[in-house]
Amino acid sequence: MAETRDIFNGGDMLPVMEEFYTLQGEGYNMGKAAYFIRVGGCDVGCSWCDSKESWNEKMFPPVEIEKIVENAISANANTVVITGGEPSLYPLDKLTNLLQEKGITTMVETSGAHDLSGHWDWICLSPKKFSPPRSSVYPKADELKVIIKYEADLKWAEMNAELVSEKTMLFLQPEWSKVPEIMPLLTDYIMKNPKWRMSLQSHKYMGIP
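Predicted structure:
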């Protein structure tokens, strides 16, 4: 991963796929206005990923982080969410420092597949079986959001819940293509295991990015 990171000058530049101001659609911060910065590049490769076009970072020319911050300020956003792709591929200390200096709350959505850099007000960890989180990421997570496609995924969710802090919020989220069949299962499971909460991709129901 060092080679992938080094070509972006130690975090002075990042391969930005897209930036947009919208409402957070998932998890604990659902409904909160936020400026999303989607970085290109991912080596996790979820089959059900809804942004597969982000996987190849070479498709997205590097953008100076000062420009990224300027765009967020221009949108009048007070919260920024770094998503991907996979943000943990890149050094994010410089970007998050600049954002926080401007009074902007910093959040990240990551699989934790690599050690996570940056200074964060909120870390959403969404672990993937085929590229599990690094042990260093678990204690930092404010929120654990596990995508459930099959009933067997619940065992994976519980394994990850054992590794995060007691203060970490726990969410189960049905994989979008399986919502009709998975929702009754998750509803019943959460009622029997109330440490978990339901997360939905509400932005898809609302028809927003």
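Summary: The first strand starts at residue 13 and ends at 23.
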